[in-house]
Amino acid sequence: MWVAPSLLSCDFSCLREEIEDVVRGGADLLHLDVMDGHFVPNLTFGPMIVKAIRKLTRLPLDAHLMIENPEKWVDRFIEAGADWISFHFEACRDPISLAKYLKEKKIKAGLAINPGTPFESVKDILREFDFILVMTVNPGFGGQRFMKEVVEKIERIHSYLGGEIPIEVDGGINAETVEYVLKAGATIIVSGSYIFGSPDRKYAIDSLRRENGDKGKA
Ligand code: DX5
Ligand code: ZN
Question: Model's pTM, two decimal places?
Answer without folding.
Answer: 0.96
